Every structure is written in structure tokens, then in C-alpha cells.
Request: fold
Amino acid sequence: MSIYAVNRMCHQLMHDKNWRWAMQTDPERAVSSLDLTGEERDAILSGDVGALFLMGANAFLLGYLTRFNVLGLTLPVYNERMRAVLGKPART
Amino acid sequence: MSIYAVNRMCHQLMHDKNWRWAMQTDPERAVSSLDLTGEERDAILSGDVGALFLMGANAFLLGYLTRFNVLGLTLPVYNERMRAVLGKPART
Amino acid sequence: MALIAGGIGVPHTPYFPKFAADQGPDGEINRYFGMARAALETQAPDVIILIDTDHFNTFYFDCFPTFGVGIDDTFLGPVDDVALMPPRDFISDRALAAHLFRGLVHEGFDAAHVTHYQVGHSIGVPLYFLTPGYDVPVIPIFLNGHLPPMPSSKRSLAFGEALGAAIRAWEQDIRVTVIGTGSFSLDVAGPLMDPGENFGVPDLEWAKRVTALMRSGDVGTLCDEATEPRMLAAGNVGGEVLNWIAMLGAVGPGQADWIELQEIRGHAFAAWIGDQA
Amino acid sequence: MALIAGGIGVPHTPYFPKFAADQGPDGEINRYFGMARAALETQAPDVIILIDTDHFNTFYFDCFPTFGVGIDDTFLGPVDDVALMPPRDFISDRALAAHLFRGLVHEGFDAAHVTHYQVGHSIGVPLYFLTPGYDVPVIPIFLNGHLPPMPSSKRSLAFGEALGAAIRAWEQDIRVTVIGTGSFSLDVAGPLMDPGENFGVPDLEWAKRVTALMRSGDVGTLCDEATEPRMLAAGNVGGEVLNWIAMLGAVGPGQADWIELQEIRGHAFAAWIGDQA
Ligand SMILES: [Fe+3]
Ligand SMILES: [Fe+3]
Reply:
């Protein structure tokens, strides 16, 4: 269940200030340390929160990406991308 | 609930090999890093597992002290000290 | 024996300390929380039992309990960057918490033992407004109202009833207030957000329905209607209504003394009168 | 639909891999475990559900659940220095585990969600002897049979029944074996140890009684007699009989196919025949 690593990455944005700083300043380098699939890594680095949600990531935790302004995810951008996947089938 | 720190000390004997080594080689120094009451520290350093049990420490975890030969607690010594408190009132 | 002096229901929006400060003392947030605080002060509890849903501050997926009881002398929180509320140690009541845990497990409620724990805004924010002196011991009761599968509404009510029985079986003559905290319709950072916001209220009609059923004290109908699909359609934390239902189980059935819906957030503020001394 | 091919009961003494090697293939430990392994091979499961009590390897006091379901593709163990058994990754079945968790919570069993987890000897040792090729996926079910308050015997039986119903409701045509593991009378490192040993069997008569009631399939009487004081008087892990009771709930009432008490350790080895295809 490698989506676990996506969720944990978001979780640590809140609870590890070093990690938050790393993701805010050099996300490509930070993400390279994680155990992710290529699809997950690409979705993270492109800020594609809708795709991450459909892969099974937790919305509450994904919200930390915009709360801490990671990956260019201003609130309008995050909001639009997340609302765009409404009703689309999620992987289980 | 500072007996929490006593239990955790025992728990880490199993799961942290550095801690196990520290307790096997210089227990006085190792224990000084813990958040213990004076009574707890004295009971640990004197290997008084019966007293620790009556203070609320978990027997299964205390058993790691003899399993890893910490504080001179050979099995006969541990066994005798623990059996001696049978039926004595424990703190709640 | 202990007595349940009453019940309180409030939200726990993490931005409310900041928003309330920005609005000033006469703003809506301070007005609603002021009503709840007045009710709490009338109830004059010696101990507060706070039923909440943790949002990954106490637990993580690694071990996420359906129900849990916080058992310790103190706990730290909020640890999730609540503006104007730096983390602090809250006082709790370890002996009573252990008693409640024993009572719940013995009655067949499979709660997790929780100690040496931290909490987030879902506990911190209600206390920020309700007990600003942080002088009343607080025992957190954790209920998963966020991650499906959630306990059913009937199970949550029964859990609350067993919690109430365990409180009343406590040997000390103390007054206890039970607080339930959470929203009725709220989606946080998910596809049901409102345009441009970081949250949404996907089913205001459901929030109104819940409020009406609580006002009239019809918990049976509320449990019948609060199915998991219905709660989830009301937002990804729609299950937090279960915290209120469990609180009602503990306090006992009956009409709310008062309940006020804050429509823009899909949540409410309310108070129930409890046992007569 | 899935079918429960049978039940197995075994101990999980952490020293047994070493002791068995010392005794050789004809020793008592290999003989008893050989019988259980033969029963398992006859049952030919596609998945094993293993009900065990964690001894601080998966959980700690911080969040210790009454019941938990391990939900992941793999898990690591044993992580508690079992001689001759270095930690390894075990294969599991995440989809089935998630299904079981949903079924249990929906039936009112308040289990914890457990993922990304490690296990100790209580899961590793049974598998060392029963599936030495480690080729059958294993789903751990955690039951607190160690730290009071423990679930009651009746609650554990009902939990097992709900687990069995959830297994049989699984859509795939697979064969499942349910294993319960633990002792009937055993004190580990506590005041009830035998002189000179690191363990004790404080109530061999109780272990005999449990064995007789399981042999005759009288689970009702077993649940009546297995009160918390009785289990704790049989040693600080006397509550592990609850793992067997839950297993019997899942497999269904009935006489054991065979059951052998190993008196010196206060535990038994046994097998039950399950559903007919
Ligand atoms: Fe919430
Ligand atoms: Fe055990």
C-alpha cells in the first residue's frame, strides 16, 4: 500500500517542521527520499491533488499541501483541482 | 504516571540495541537520562524488580531485565525477588 | 456518586481562535461560544469528558481505534499549529479515566487504552473557548467519526450510554459535563469543498435536520437517519455527528436546552441539562 | 464464497524454535507442532487468519486496542529476538483484511485499524512451525488477552462469530484456516513463576478444565467459567485463552478433532474441522 507513503508525506508536513521546510524549498529533492511509485511521485511534484485523492490519499491530509503552500498549491489551485474529481471513481 | 518511564525503559531493552548495550555496560549513567522518581531510579539500579512490580511496572516487560542480564539480574535472582512479592498489595 | 451535570455540543474549527480574535468580542464566534461557556459555567463541572474525533494528531493509520479513552495525568496539545493557541499541558484525571475504560470494556465496548498522548485542534479549540483558564480536568474520549468504517449511530449511542453509566458509577461526589464536538455537514479539503474555500457544507439540509431532531430530543429518529452513507454524503467529517450522539447517550435523552445552527459551517452550538442533584 | 476449512490452536512460546532444534525432530515440541501442521495441510488454506495477543511488539500502552485487524500487503516479524528466527516479511491479504475490518465494525465490534505494522513471537512462532515455507498469506487479528481490562469471554466469542460471518461473506472462493494462539495457564516473569524458572503454570487444573471443555465442544460452559479473575489467577497471560475462544466463535461450536495438553507449559495443541465444501 504505497499510498501510505503519500499520506505520511502530508502528515509530516504538519508534524515535522524540517520536512515542511524541505518540501517548501526543494520538493523534488525531498520527494526523492520517499518510497513512492513513479505515478505517485509525478502526481505529487505536479501538485495533482485530484489524482492523489483518486489513488486513495486522504483529503484531510492532502489539505496540508495547500495550508503550507507546498508545490504551488494556493487555495484556488488546490480547490479547483480537488473539486474537479468529484464523482470520479477512486481506486480501492 | 512516571511508572510509564520504567516500562518504556524495559521495552527499549528489546527494541533499541543501543539502549540495551548502555544498560548492560553502564546502567547508572543510562538511567540518569530517564524521567524517573528517586524511588524508581533506586529500585532499578538495585535490581529490585519486586518493588518495581508493586509500583505498577509490567511483569512481562520487567522480564527483559533478566533476559538481557541487566543489573545483575540472573534468572535465579530475578525469580526469587519477583516471587517474594506474591500477594503483596500493588499500588494502583 | 458522580453526577452528569449536563451536556454541551460545540464545533472545533481550527481557525476559530484567530477568526474570533479578528471578529472581536461581539462577533458571531464569540457569541455562540459565549453561550456554550455560560452553560458550562452553570453546570460547574469538576471534570469534563470530551468526546471527539482525532484528525491524525493523536493517532495515525498505523493504529487507529474506533473508540479510545485517554488515560493519563496530563496531555499536550494542540499539536497541529492552531493560530493563537500554542501547545500546552492540559490537566486530566487518570483515576477516573481508568475507571471509565474498565467500565466500557466490561460492558462490551472494545475501546483502546490510550496514554502518553497528544491531541489536536479537535480537543484544543473547544477548551480554548469554554475553559480559557484551563482549570478543569479533561478526559478525552476518542471516536472515529472520520475514517470509514465508522461506528454506527446506534453503536455510538450505546457507547455513550455505557459511558454515562460508568461516569455515574464513579464513587466520588463530583459533577461531570460531557461535551461532544464536531460538525454535522462539513467537507475538509475534499471534492465536496465549496468553490474557492478550504471547506464545504455539502448538505445544509441534513445539518438542519440533525439540529431539529436534537432540539426535540428525538435521538431514535436521528440514529435511524444517520447512516454511514448519509453522514459521508454530508462531508468527509460528517461522521462527527457521532460525537454528539455519544454525548447524548451519556447525558440521557431529552430536548436540548438550546441549540443554534451556524449554517455557514454546517455545525451547531448547544446545551443539555443533566441529572438533578 | 469463502469457506472456513477448520480451526487450529497452538502456543507461541518464543523459545520453542530453539528448544525444538535442541530436542530434534522426534522431540515433544516438533511432535505436537507436527500434528498441528498436518491438520493445517489437510485444511489446505489459501489464507490464514491468526488471532493472537500482542506482547508489546505491535502496540504499546500509548494505544493498545482491545481488538485490531492487521491490514496491509506484508508485515515484518518477529521483531523480538526469537532465536533461530530472524525477522522477515510475511505476505498478507490487504483486500480481505479490509473486508473483515469493515464487517466487524459494521456488526458493532469496535476494532482498531492497524497497518504498516510489525509483529512479535506470538505471530512468528506459530508460523515458524506451521507454514515453514511462509507461502500462505496471513492476516493477524489482535485481541488483548494480556492487559486488564480484557474483553470478556462472551465478547470474544461473539467477536469470533462476527469474524467468521465476515470471512464466509467474502466473495472469493477460497479456503481459510483460523488459528488461535496462546496459553491457558501461564505467568511470564511475574510473581506466579515457578521456582527457578522464567515462567510458571499457576493453575494446571484450569488448563485441564479448558482442554476438556474444548475437547467436548462445550464453549458455553467455557465462557461461563472463563471470568477475568479466573484467567488472571491462571497467570499474567491467562487471558490468551480468549484467542482460542474467538477462534472457536469463527469456526463454529463443536468438538475438537483432537486436542493435546502440554502440561509443563500450561498450553495445548488442537484442531477443529470446519465447513464442508
Ligand atoms: Fe473535525
Ligand atoms: Fe503469549
About this structure: The two ends of chain A are 11 Å apart (CA to CA). The pocket of fe (iii) ion (ligand 1) is lined by residues C 12, 53, 55, 122, 182, 237, 240 (CB under 6 Å). The mean pLDDT of chain A is 95. Chain A touches chain C at residues 4, 7-8, 11, 14-15, 50, 53, 58-63, 66-67, 75-76, 78-79, 82-83, 85-87 (CB under 8 Å).
